[in-house]
Amino acid sequence: MTHFEQEMEKELLKLEESIRSKIEKTDDDFRGVVSANGIRDSADLATEDMVTRKMETISQLDANKLNAVRQALIRIKNGKYGTCAICGKPIPEERLRAIPYAMLCLNCKNVKEKNSR
Length: 117
Known about the structure:
mainly alpha, 2 domains, 4 helices, about 75% helix, about 0% strand, flat
């Protein structure tokens, strides 16, 4: 394992812990909203619904990011970290420092985003 990969592994492990903590807090907050009781009017119910939807969205985004981080850690162990999953070219170090769980080089990411529109 290269020095850069060791550095990125440490960064990814910190990121993984941070996301897990955030998900746990969001889940606790979500349970608090769901279990709130008492007399509520329609405005309270609408606000509660909006908060619930927001928390679900945040949780899903965090779950996706956590999965991407875990996949990056697997790529480090398998010796495939820093290689674009589409074209097989190296992902620039600057990109990996900015997004340590990146799976695609910028060119492939741009093409993929353009095709998904």
